[in-house]
Design a protein that fits this description.
The protein has 621 residues and is an alpha/beta fold. It has a domain at 187-368: 3-Layer(aba) Sandwich (Rossmann fold), CATH 3.40.50.12780. The protein contains 16 helices and 29 strands. The strands form nine sheets. A seven-stranded mixed beta sheet has the order 10-9-22-21-23-24-25, with helices on both faces. A five-stranded parallel beta sheet has the order 12-11-13-16-17, with helices on both faces. A hairpin with a 6-residue loop joins β9 (204-209) and β10 (216-220). α2 (128-140) crosses α3, α7 (279-289) crosses α8 and α13 (475-484) packs across α15. The longest helix has 17 residues, at 221-237. The relative contact order is 0.16. It catalyses: (E)-4-coumarate + ATP + CoA = (E)-4-coumaroyl-CoA + AMP + diphosphate. One of its GO terms (biological process) is acetyl-CoA biosynthetic process.
């Protein structure tokens, strides 16, 4: 039996500690991800086979439908307890449990990264004890926990006495999840008007950095609200109302979050499609949701390449019309940096230039008050059958959950400048470019271009230009920049950075360490987030300042999330084990259905293990 060498605690400046633990494995493991369970009072720490948001219910490592696999491909590790004391504010690792994912195991030292005393002292959650107290209440009293958070937002009408009504057990009838039903609110109002009323009208809401260096812009919260209201008034003028679908096929211009917020303001349901998907993929989504309007632009530059989006829209609508889903109105934004209108194919009366009509409408538009359970958006994921799944998120619970996860997972401060490199065509862009940050009154950077254009230093040039403090990106980008060499990073200051984040897939320990040591100068905690399009927000993630971090580990459940590991018969497993990752009970950000196919919703997510939400992933403890 091989054993790993002793664990080495890495302590940033102003933190000193030593610890040792030996780990032994019972079989060869071709992939690794170490996770620790700091105390018996803490919830279980889980290894996840897929760090989302990626299309759900795929086999571990993305090879088909996970619901079809018969054996969870995991190996076990045993542990020897550590008795070392961590510095004050960092907690004690008393029962470290470990499982491994990613890189080949070899006898090597592994690091626990302890937050500095300065960071923990000022953090929103500054100790394991504070986390455990908050987590315990969120599980034992979810109605009280989430009601207190809900009270921080504006509600035209307060919800009824039943905060949560749910049935996730298919044996007991139709699956139903409802949070704050009966409460009337508006997520756009809470993201913009509420922050302006709090005195933040002159605060920058959006910075925009274009594809080419030197292309930039910004909008304050007051200016953003005016832009949103103008588009909302235009949409109402052309007949879009509460419950109507609007497809948005835009690149990362400021007009993309503007369009999302404008739909939300009038109660319309937006469906953002990644501006890069083919005409066939776009037409499938159009056919399914039957929008009244499509919002797009003529073209976009990504790096040195021009993508003709208007042409893709035209081709997609040819196909949708064949399937009896014509769309009579196309609002087209003229993206002059990519293509001028004179060279854009356009049909008079059908294709309307955004710049010709939207600025003519009033800058004030009353918010449409909607029930907490009214739909907010549809976001399509790839289905195992070939038909995209329309994940349906509603308003109230999603609003609370994205705002709260953003706040705590990134230790958000009002002075932060936040940059997430994700596109709004994905759930990350919905939850952590648009809604979560703006609901907290944050300043958000929107980047149109490619992160390695014109060279591999572009990200850090942008970080210095805007004094970015929170940087959230994907491991794929981290590894790509790592291959390009440290010199592209170290030529820039990056002194503004204080929190880093990882999303979209597992981050291997060597990439984690490079991200931490080189990009973050060994001082920025990394929020390694696991979640899904379907969950709406983070499910398992480190909370900066609360715990030591393990390279490549997603660590602990977020507040209100009760993960369990079950065997093939649905029996909950205890202690060290491998099995299928499920979630007990619902949470506010959970999706409510698959659009037009509730039966598929139940079959995919709730029938595999009755009484639980099945994530489609395997895990080990």
């Amino acid at each position: 039996m091989d054993s790993l060498s002793s664990t080495r605690i890495y302590t940033p400046p102003m933190a000193t500690a030593t610890a040792s633990a030996k780990w032994s494995r019972t079989a060869a493991v071709p992939w690794r991800r170490l996770l620790f369970s700091p105390s018996t009072a803490a919830p279980p720490l889980l290894l996840l086979g897929r760090t989302c948001p990626a299309p759900s219910c795929r086999r571990l490592f993305g090879m088909g439908s996970s619901s079809r696999r018969s054996v969870a491909p995991f190996d076990h590790l045993s542990h020897v307890e550590s008795t070392s004391q961590l510095p004050s504010g960092a907690g004690r690792i008393s029962r470290p449990n470990a499982v491994v994912l990613g890189e080949a195991i070899a006898a090597e030292e592994v690091d626990l990264v302890v937050p500095s005393h300065d960071f923990s002292r000022d953090a929103l959650v500054s100790s394991p004890e504070q986390y455990q107290q908050m987590y315990k209440r969120s599980i034992e009293d979810p109605a009280g926990f989430w009601s207190e958070i809900a009270s921080q937002f504006y509600w035209k009408e307060r919800w009824g006495p039943e905060v949560c009504s749910e049935n996730i057990d298919v044996r007991k009838g139709t699956v139903k999840i409802e949070w704050f039903k009966g409460g009337d609110t508006n997520i756009c109002y809470n993201a913009l008007d509420r922050n302006i009323e709090a005195g933040n009208g002159d605060k920058v809401a959006l910075y925009w950095e274009g594809n080419e260096p030197g292309q930039d812009g910004q909008l304050t919260y007051a200016q953003l609200l005016e832009k949103v209201c103008q588009l909302a008034n235009y949409l109402k003028h052309v007949g879009v109302g509460k419950g109507d679908a609007v497809v948005i096929y835009l690149p990362m211009l400021m007009e993309l979050p503007i369009a999302m917020l404008a739909c939300a303001r009038i109660g319309a349901v937006h469906s953002v499609v990644f501006a890069g998907f083919s005409a066939e993929s776009l037409s499938q989504r159009i056919i399914d949701c039957k929008p009244k309007v499509i919002i797009s632009c003529n073209a976009v530059r990504r790096g040195a390449k021009t993508i003709h989006l208007k042409e893709i829209v035209d081709n997609a609508l040819v196909e949708s019309t064949k399937n009896r889903v014509p769309v009579d109105l196309r609002l087209i934004y003229e993206n002059k940096s990519a293509m001028d209108r004179e060279t854009t194919n356009r049909q008079e009366g059908r294709d309307i230039w955004w710049q010709d009509v939207v600025p003519q409408f009033p800058t004030k538009c009353p918010a449409e008050w909607v029930d907490a359970e009214d739909p907010l958006f549809l976001l399509y994921t790839s289905g195992s059958t070939g038909k995209p799944k329309g994940v349906l998120h509603t308003t109230g619970g999603y609003m609370l959950y994205t705002a709260t996860t953003f706040k705590y997972a990134f230790d958000y401060k009002p002075s932060d400048v936040y940059w997430c490199t994700a596109d709004c065509g994905w759930i990350t862009g919905h939850s952590y470019v648009t809604y979560g940050p703006l609901l907290n009154g944050a300043t958000v950077l929107v980047f149109e271009g490619a992160p390695s254009y014109p060279d591999a230093g572009r990200c850090w040039d942008i970080v210095d230009k805007y004094k970015v403090t929170i940087f959230y990106t994907a491991p794929t980008l981290v590894r790509a920049l790592m291959r390009d060499g440290d010199e592209y990073v170290t030529r820039y200051s990056r002194k503004s950075l204080r929190v880093l984040g990882s999303v979209g897939e597992p981050i291997n320990p060597s990439a984690w360490r490079w991200f931490y040591n080189v990009v973050g100068d060994s001082r920025c905690p990394i929020s390694d987030t696991w979640w899904q399009t379907e969950t709406g927000g983070f499910m398992i993630t480190p909370i900066p300042g609360a715990w030591p971090q393990k390279p490549g580990s997603a660590t602990f459940p977020f507040f209100g999330i009760e993960p369990v590991i079950v065997d093939e018969k649905g029996n909950e497993l205890e202690g060290e084990c491998s099995g299928y990752l499920c979630i007990k009970k619902s949470w506010p950000g959970a999706f409510r259905s698959l659009y037009g196919d509730h039966e598929r919703y139940e079959t995919t997510y709730f029938k595999p293990f009755a009484g639980y939400y099945f994530t489609g992933d395997g895990c080990s403890r």
